[in-house]
Records
---
Amino acid sequence: MRGALMYGPGDVRVEDRKDPVIENPTDAIVRLAASCVCGSDLWAYRGLEPLPSVPTPMGHEYAGTVIAIGDAVANVKVGDFVVGSFFASDNTCEICRSGYQTHCPQREAAAPGGAQSELLRVPLADGTLVATPSAPEPDLIPSLLAASDVLGTGWFGAVAAQAGPDRTVAVVGDGAVGLLAVLAARELGAARIIAMSRHADRQALAREFGATDIVEERGDAGVARIKELTDGLGAHSTIEAVGTQEAMDQAIKATRAGGHVGYVGVSHDVTLDGLGLFFSGVHLHGGPAPVRHYLPDLIGRIMRREIDPGRVFDLVIPLDDTAEAYRAMDERRAIKAMLTM
């Protein structure tokens, strides 16, 4: 098969690699219909976090057709079109049943061989993969791919922030996760959605997904603008979808006392001011999104064409050109790049 490997910062190569095989009876092999580059992949690409190995197989978002299963797999079968989350889980333990599959005691990487490839071995397939009710039309594949991470992550951010009717929601971050958090807030019934963005193309997509207001200011100026829009109180619900110190500070300060911050940006060198948090009266909840918990609902909405999260893919590029997909996202020429097989 063809698959992407990262050799170091700025060095992504697509090479011939061995096809994955069933290693455990709980495995499945999936022929991918599409994959993509995640914003979190850019941390290593920019040299801001170390690679676990050199070279490292890349990618953790996937959707495709099951072509082989282990002897213990019962919930999916060969021929099913499936979507899975970036963490594999058994989906049967107490933690999974409570909706936190990313914290399953049995969890492991769902794409150990890298999902920026033609084929993928998925461990714990019964607990990790969700089959679509029928074979999807080709135009639905981008949205189903989005469900495997960025849609599910944005959705969890909105749920963690308790977005809902009669609430004003602010979204810090205009990448794919932030934009889909806007969509999630709309679907959850938010009365007002404030998207924080300085980029015209992302502002337009945010409005398409349901944003009612755009705030271009950042930091303290952004906080002041949100408070100006909310009678000086701040948002009821704020979603932090970046993972930097500035974004977390902005999210907490922009939220009213008694409000909720849902943080889903992968934190890098973020610290909390304990005394400031103590007096803020703000609830914090977040972390790696339990995408598996939301997949059945999200797949249903997509298959019924109620939502179109695949709109975040503004660059579609062949797998062999994965290096260009990384460059385009790194240079902010693309919101999110989809890789075709």
Note: The first helix runs from residue 41 to 45.
---
Amino acid sequence: MSATLSRRRLLGTATCAGLAALPLASRFTLAAEPTKPKELIVRAWGGVWVEALEKGVSKPFRERTGIAVRHDLTEDNELRPKIWAAVDQRRTPPVHVNWDTTTNATKSALRGVAEDLSDLANLKEMLPAARPTGFRGVPLINMYSYVYVLAYRDEAFPNGAPDSWQVLLDPRFKGRIALYDDGIGFQPPAQIAGGGKLEDIPDNMEPCWSFMRKVKAQNPLLGEDPDFTTWFQNGEIDLACTILSNARAARQNGIKVSWTVPKEGAKVDTDSMWVPKGLPENELYWAKRYIDFAMTREAQQVWTGELGLPGLRPGLTPPADLVGDPAYPTRPEDFARLLSVPSPVLVQHEAEWSQKFNEIMQG
């Protein structure tokens, strides 16, 4: 683990103000609400990701509204062109809500295919980082942050956690390391491990590519989120650059897996939710209500807690096993040791970096 005009007429100002003032449960039962669709389709990642979304957001939303929620597990990069084509051709988009990386969501927002979400009542309760910058309106909402940790199998490191990404080059681990199949999350630490500087991204990334060429010689496994958990559970890998949630899921399944933020740092990022344009008015209304519910403290506590990620709703209680963990940042000093690349840079260069990564790994 690379983005506003609304089709429907907004409710009157007084009605919107009244909705915002009502408790959540009341807002879901107003007689004036539009007809409920039979289902909402929400794009999600598989494995622990969709399980957490179901438990924290989809199931309670379904119970409150009676609307079925179906999860579409199409990869975000595969779904994006389908949404864009549907909007361009004035067809109904394939999903109601897209749970997406902030980079990909920004690409869609810049293209103008995302509905404005600035009227959602719970947005004002979120941390400032929930709102994207550089847009008129709010075409996407960031829901939580996450870190691409260096995860490791405990038995391979009896003396404690590795302190550097250089461990990926150890001959002992040839064929037993794993990365995302597009290199996402690995470029910033590879840049520093290769002798470069974070501030040199994107103008001089040769240190990053040089380090990746060395990693390629280690025959890494390449995959998506659910693969990392499976690989650790099957004993196929000893090291991985992956989002904390995947390593934590393996540990929760009884596998002795840990993680660390090496001395070079680790990439921190956010994921978001947004609604494609082109939905019927009633479906647009309920898609926005789904995202509004996903921002409530109730939903955020369960959803992000299951993922082991810090939600962007203040006042959440960290999971007991992650209190004080450097991969669970909640304070400015926590973020200081993490590596963040500005979203505009990611949007502009993600495809280029992915292509370069594939060239290296396939070479």
Note: Confidence is low (pLDDT under 50) at residues 1-31.
---
Amino acid sequence: MRWLLISMLFLPAVSFVSCNNPPSQQADEEKNPGPQGGPKVELVDNKEAQQVDVLVDGKPFTSYCYSDTLLKQILYPIYTAGGHFLTRGWPLKSRPGEHTDHPHQRGMWLNYGDVNGYDFWGNSYAIPQDVRKVQKGTIKHVKIDRIASGNGEGTLVADERWVSPYGHPLLAEQTTYHFLADGTTRIIDRITTLTATDSAVAFKDTKEGMFAIRYNRHLHIPSNKPETFVDAEGNKTTVTPDSREATGNYLSSEAVTGDSVWSTRAKWMDLYGNIEGEDISVVICDHPRNFDYPTYWHARGYGLFSANPFGAHDFTNGKLTIGYTLPKGQSITFRYRVIISSETHLSPDQINRYAADFAEQYE
């Protein structure tokens, strides 16, 4: 795996936040050679906790959490190289001052709000059971196919199933995560292939999707104006911002900034700010082989950072509707890169180099 080199940072000692808090155990693993001389990226399979912990030189980076109680698989929490939380803690493990809106927005994930009429995006245990059992889909963990550790890179391959509220399988998912580390930069490449199993599967056009991060309140865009958001079912959520510690801003590959990035299309999106003295850039890169590249961005200043290739209707005020139907037995692949730069904000030229490297990989 080719990638850019930057200066090393000695990471402070931090502890994993477990999804379920049971004891851990070391799994048998393959070895990934990775860049010569890079930091050790080690994956540890904590079977009792139903998570795989990812460590960089022995320090926590993230955990792949696959308990069915989560209703989907997530990376949570995610740490910066400086040891700060990139992701919001609530509702799994609250931290002081956090917003408690949108309980389905946890860690880093991929799902969608209208799959054959079922909502996978907005599913959480905050939804009444009588609604969940007829409207909400769940992504079920099947197995971990492969775990590999190595210098500079670790890899995880997992199989999942997208299941309707009535228990009918709609999609088979295979996802490969590449965890890369060098200096003060961390990269996560997520490559997800979805296959329609028993019948054709329709992704109806909605803004509620698709590849997303719910991030730390320190990276929120400063604002004192309450905002009300409406989901696809008409449910309203009001978010009251607190700008006292908000330091964030967005910048797109097309030079759009701030809240104006919502509904625009771009090759990549940079969220930059400061977390308790640590300068941070968090970049999501779309891939040229993805559907309808460059993607639309469902990116909000209150903490949601999401790329959505299927949401044209909402993003264009009804001028364009996409939708997508995957025939039975056919597959579609989504490729996303997340770059987490610590101690410095990345320049557009630096991001373009990372994006160009990503574009040359992954069929």
Note: Helices lie at 129-135, 312-315, 348-359.
---
Amino acid sequence: MKTFYYLIFTFLIVTSCKTDSKSSPEIIQKEVKKAEFSIIIHGGAGSIRRDNISEEKEAEYRQKLEEAIRVGHDILKNGGTSLDAVQKTITVLEDSPLFNAGKGAVLTFEGINEHDASIMDGQTLNAGASAGTKTVKNPINLARAVMVQSPHVMLSGFGAETFAKDQGLEIVEPNYFFTEQKLKSLKRVQDFNKNKVASFYNDNINDSKFGTVGCAALDKNGNLAAGTSTGGMTNKRWGRIGDSPIIGAGTYANNNTCAVSSTGWGEFFIRGMVAYDISALMEYKGLSLKEAAKEVIQNKLPSIGEQGATGGIVAIDKNGNMAMEFNTQGMFRATMNDKGELYIGMFKN
């Protein structure tokens, strides 16, 4: 009988130790040296392959990614906030016709541009977003204004544009966002299959799956922030809104865990609450950022729906560790750390 009780006692001790080691997020975090600050960006994920991008175009993308991330890095290096770094970095990408945001946004079924954006503060969990705007030059600035200057989280359409004017944000004519390249993309999508309502149904349209831009940053005060901006899906209809302005799907930031910006098939990212799910896995299961991002993007996301979901994320945790996880052929991405080390990537390998 003594032997029996001894075995039971030993089993309980061993089981207790194993449970503690898996459930405490701090165990993983304490093993990682904290960076003073870090920043990570993306310019969209999709059919990004060497054989469909010329050397000249690749150089353009790399130059713009570097320009954008250095803007945010300089802000962080000089003691600025992660929110400012995220906002200013994204405006650089919005002003470039290379990406599906701002100036280079894709066209809807009607041949117009409609923009969505969001931003979130990891310190306060405050957030702002806008959807379906057509005249606000930099949607990320509107998202920041909604967060700071209104009692709301998301504004849309005409109301969002009215608020933008009241806040003194730069307003432009709708044709400012138009580019010939995006018009050609729209025509190719519509010609390929007139019965489909979105480019995601067609894997042969190589340049219509990517371009959404996003950024996540950690500042010297230990505060995280994330933001995302997009023109949505080529050939979208009926005022469709994707994941980019949805807090928890396209953008999420929490000082206790991480900051995340998503890019991909928005409908699935909304259904999977991808950005928040990564944070939740870190907070409740004690996974590292890398482990959580891989689980969500490589395992959970593709299992949603019959077709599976494609896309990726960039993220940074409270210690400055960064993750760039995607299940597509490529993702425009870049990182910079507190040592000034720059990484730029486009393709899968």
Note: The chain has a mean pLDDT of 88.
